Amino acid sequence: MAAGPVHERLAALELVDHHCHGAVTDDLDRAGFESLLTEGEAWPGMSPFDSPVGVAVRRHCAPLLNLPRHTPPDVYLARRADLGAAEVNRRFLRAAGTGVFCVDTGYAPHRVTGPAELARAADATAYEVVRLEGIAEAVAADGVEPDAYARAFRTAAWEAVRRPGVVGVKSVAAYRTGLDLDPARPSPAEVTAAASRWLARGGRLDEPVLVRHLLWTAVDLGRPLQLHTGFGDGDIRLHRADPALLTDWLRLIAGTIPVLLLHCWPYQRRAAYLSAVFERVYLDVGLALHHVGPARAGAVLAEALEITPFRKLLYSSDAYGAAEFHHLGALAFRQGLADLLQERLDADELSLPDALRLARWAGRDNARRVYRLPGGLLDDG
Ligand SMILES: [Zn+2]
Q1: Enclosing domain of residue 280
Q2: CA 220–ligand 1 middle distance (angstroms)
Q3: Count of domains observed in the chain
Q4: Is 337 inside a domain boundary?
Q5: What is the distance in A from the centroid of ligand 1 to the CA of 104?
Q6: Residue 296 Cα, ligand 1 centroid: separation in angstroms?
Q7: How much distance in Å is there from the Cα of 318 to the middle of ligand 1?
Q8: What's the pTM value of the predicted model, to 2 decimals?
Q9: Is position 97 within any domain?
Q10: Residues within 5 Å of ion ligand 1 by Cβ?
Q11: CA of 172 relative to ligand 1 center, distance in Å
Q12: C-alpha to C-alpha distance for 138 and 132, rounded to whole angstroms
């Protein structure tokens, strides 16, 4: 599609990436890099490069390593290794054109950049999003008694959100129990009984009553809550990560905290519906953007935008590990959104000022407003 004013404005817009992770700081061998390309596993005889995200990396990321477009994987990886992780990360993070990263620090099976390190490499600003399950698991590891669990978790969560630079919290309930939970706030007796079961058993927080308690604690904290929904790593049960399963809970908490439905694919239309009927519900289609690649990002965004109010869509990359994804997510978002807005302009379904406003809101200002980031209250037009 011919680049018009919407493409130019979106290309120049400093994005707010409201949910991402760090980039791996160690050099990656082929197996290590390929494992980051897939949410599943690298199976024998089948390279993760031979997938939509794999060809998007070869097409759109190779030029930033001074390689031709569509470079073969071996050449790409050899060049990546020559440059070293620090230089590769710097190139992709800067190319993303992202001014602000909100970094989920609760998932790091590799050694990855923390928010400050990411900000330095990207020449940007970074804030932190705290994962509540990690706080609960740290409380358990400290050896708390079941009847003291609720208070200890609440205290630790409050301490975490008061740390400088923390702008929100996150839950991975979708992974642990699924989102088809009893929506009601559990009673103190229920929480103590569940805590004694979980503390005796140990392991990850996957006790449904305690996951409910965690979500209600998030409401009490009063901070924006990011919720993983839709696809993700191979240990998710996709049908239980459908954001529509949150409907009754969202009704109960209406008027309290902002809830940000992350990723959503393939349920972006259901998430869009929730954002259209609940005042404080927002969504993004991060992660899907780089997995479908720039070629299909517009289609996913178009479905999300069928009914999403324009102040409810945010940008995220959900990049983890490979800095390619911090760049590719941004690129796919800009290109996909610009293509679909241009199409509506050409059909006279949208005016240019409206298209530019929508782009600015989704790419930057909606996140500034929800997280109360600097500029968020001033730059609202
Ligand atoms: Zn994430």
Answers
A1: 5-27+84-371
A2: 23
A3: 1
A4: yes
A5: 7
A6: 20
A7: 5
A8: 0.96
A9: yes
A10: 318
A11: 9
A12: 10
4 CA from centroid of ligand 1 (Å): 32
CA of 106 to the centre of ligand 1 (A): 9
Cβ count within 10 A of residue 189: 9
Q: How far is the CA of 19 from the centre of ligand 1 (A)?
A: 6
Residue with tokens 């998030």: 218
Question: Residue 70 domain-assigned?
Answer: no
Distance (Å) from CA 180 to ligand 1 centroid = 20
SS3 track for 317-340? CCCCECHHHHHHHHHHHHHHHHHH
For residue 191, report the distance from its CA to the centre of ligand 1, in Å.
Answer: 27
Residue 200 CA to ligand 1 center (angstroms) comes to 29
269: its two tokens: 């239309």
20 assigned to some structural domain: yes
**First-to-last CA distance in the chain?**
28
226: closest CA among 132, 156, 292, 134?
Answer: 132
Per-residue model confidence as pLDDT tens for the chain (381 residues): 667 889 999 999 999 999 999 999 999 999 999 999 998 887 889 999 999 999 999 999 999 999 999 999 999 999 999 999 999 999 999 999 999 999 999 988 899 999 999 999 999 999 999 999 999 999 999 999 999 999 999 999 999 999 999 999 999 999 999 999 999 999 999 999 999 999 999 999 999 999 999 999 999 999 999 999 999 888 899 999 999 999 999 999 999 999 999 999 999 999 999 999 999 999 999 999 999 999 999 999 999 999 999 999 999 999 999 999 999 999 999 999 999 999 999 999 999 999 999 999 999 999 999 999 986 544 443
Q: Return the ∠ at Cα 39 (arms to 238 and 73), rounded to 5°.
A: 150
Short-list 260, 235, 254, CA closest to 311: 260
Tokens 């240990």 sit on residue: 235
CATH number for the domain harbouring residue 309: 3.20.20.140
